[in-house]
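To the team - pyridoxal-5'-phosphate complex, inputs and output below.
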Amino acid sequence: MTTDDTARAARLLHLHREALAKGDPVPPQITLAAMYHLPGDPAGARTYGRADNPTWEVLEQALAHLEGADTVVFPSGMAAIAAPLFALLGSGDRLLIPSDGYYTTRLLADRYLKRLGVTVDTRPTAGMEEGGFDGYRLVFLETPSNPGLDLCDLAAITAAVRAAGRLTVVDNTTMTPFGQRPLDLGADIVVAADTKAPNGHSDVLMGHVASRDDEIIAAVREWRKLSGSIPGPFECWLAHRGLETLELRFDRMCSSAAILAPRLAAHPAIRTIRYPGLATDPSHALAQRQMTRAGFLIGLTLQSAEAAEAFINNCPLLQPATSFGGVHSSAERRIRWGDAVDPGFVRLSVGCEPVEELWNALKASLDAGS
Ligand SMILES: Cc1ncc(COP(=O)(O)O)c(C=O)c1O
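Output:
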């Protein structure tokens, strides 16, 4: 972490206090309200539950503090991704998205944006710069990509797209603001699934959009109000509570992943490994330039689908589940959702278990299958 990151992490825990009056409860409150007391001219006041909510604002302030940018929260990562795509694109526009990123983003573009007249092109994350960006209204990036953990050069791509007067959106879900800061690297918009590490307890879906451009934020906020894509106050409260320990959990998860990756790489049951923190990884040099941590995800390819299933299901410290970023380590074979990966490919999400306990459990499960 940089000094800026530690300063941000420290102040995050006191942000809410700055607005307290004597006698106020210290934790944020859950406000359940469809209506607000609104006599006369509504200007400058909260108006209606689809437009405003004080508990959303608490979460937005915390995320805005971490992003260093205005932030709008959404009820899931996909709702956050949909917001800039639907608010900013129209008929005749071209959109470039990764061919190897989170598959639902591709499905959304394919099923809904195409029929509104948006042309959708795809490229692999590692080859994102090949072919240039002429003619694209919006370039959507995901780095490290889920699930393959390939990287693309954020500073180079955002500069090229900006020079052409166009916009970049970066899905920062796999890294969080403590591991990578796309807006500082030139991106116009960050989107993220706070369902993952920011909430961290696998009990809430949440997402956010952050940008330093007032017009973009206004367009995204308007999209939320008009489409009704609003989070529940209780979910925001839970996500805020999770966010307060993100720095602590992310630190443990990344440190553990860095210890486990070389040990896993050396295990005979592992055919190949992807982890940007390994010096042998094709993305290592770029990771060192643009990420402050190597993350908590590790891609492992075992000999077969059966070996991979046995590894996941026989390990008492691995939660078999889709999704990642929880306090508990989890894993799944991504081919079961149709990702273009080897049948034996496992996405491992390293959690908060003490690392030697976790290693012993992972090793025992790998040993049993090899
Ligand atoms: C990289 C990435 N972006 C976005 C999402 C969507 O998040 P949600 O499931 O909260 O809609 C996911 C979910 O797995 C993801 O992995």
